[in-house]
Specification:
By secondary structure, the chain is of the alpha/beta class. The chain has one domain: P-loop containing nucleotide triphosphate hydrolases (Rossmann fold, 3-Layer(aba) Sandwich). Helix content is about 35%, strand content about 25%. It has seven helices and ten strands. The strands form two sheets. It has a six-stranded mixed beta sheet. A four-stranded antiparallel beta sheet has the order 2-1-4-5, with helices on one face. Helix 3 crosses helix 4, helix 3 runs parallel beside helix 5 and helix 5 runs parallel beside helix 6. The longest helix has 18 residues. The protein is globular.
Length: about 220
């Protein structure tokens, strides 16, 4: 589902700085891979490159068989909408929409019909343990529950890839473990490929594989 080959990235400016080079990775359907690294190692930059939000200086990215290199901004937007789900540290759940309406957003953007949206949202909320909270507002939920909403939203349109950027950063350890276990279970169930960027070794240990991003590529985190 995800294939990275010889990726390299540097930051321009008065003092150009190489971030990483020779990054290679393949992630299969149903697999969650955690990427660790020191602050400034380029973890979020790598995630943005996988999502087509940033361009590498060298190398290639393929998502579900689609090479990102020749795609323009409009084509990349369509690819993200269809093939990628996002989970963020700050949840990004819209406070003025109900829980169900938040989860429905990816399907609405794809122009799906209301009956399909209602059915898929209800099924996904059941899957993340929030089947009775759809009519509620985000302010009524705990941090762990909000991240469950974010996971439901990321997977409701059945993406090929799920990208999670520090999804446990605002959670206590117990809630964090529950969120990662749920994310892993749902990725397996839906047949997506997942990338978890985190500074937490406890979170990374719950993934199928844990790698460390260095300036010269990805290495086994041990």
């Amino acid at each position: 589902m995800i294939e990275l080959r010889s990726l390299a990235k540097s930051f321009a400016g008065p003092r150009p700085r190489a971030v990483f080079r020779d990054v290679a990775l393949r992630i299969a359907a149903g697999e969650l891979v955690a990427i660790l690294g020191e602050s400034g190692a380029g973890k979020s930059t790598l995630l943005n490159i996988i999502a087509g939000l940033d361009r590498p200086d060298a190398g290639t990215v393929a998502i579900a068989g689609h090479d990102l290199a020749p795609l323009d901004d409009d084509a990349l937007t369509v690819l993200r909408r269809r093939h990628i789900g996002f989970v963020f540290q700050a949840f990004h759940v819209l406070p003025y929409l109900t829980v169900s309406q938040n989860v429905a957003l990816p399907l609405a953007l794809l122009g799906r019909a209301s009956p399909e949206i209602d059915s898929r949202v209800a099924a996904m909320l059941d899957a993340v343990g929030l089947g009775d909270r759809g009519a509620g507002m985000p302010r009524e939920l705990s941090g762990g529950e909000l991240q469950r909403v974010a996971i439901a939203r990321a997977l409701v349109h059945r993406p090929s890839v799920v990208l999670a950027d520090e999804p446990t950063g605002n959670l206590d350890p117990t809630s964090a473990a529950g969120v990662i276990e749920l994310l892993r279970e749902r990725i397996r169930s839906e047949g997506a490929a997942g990338v978890l960027v985190t500074h937490s070794r406890a979170a990374a240990a719950l993934a199928d594989r844990a790698l460390t991003l260095t300036s010269t590529g990805l290495v086994d985190a041990g």
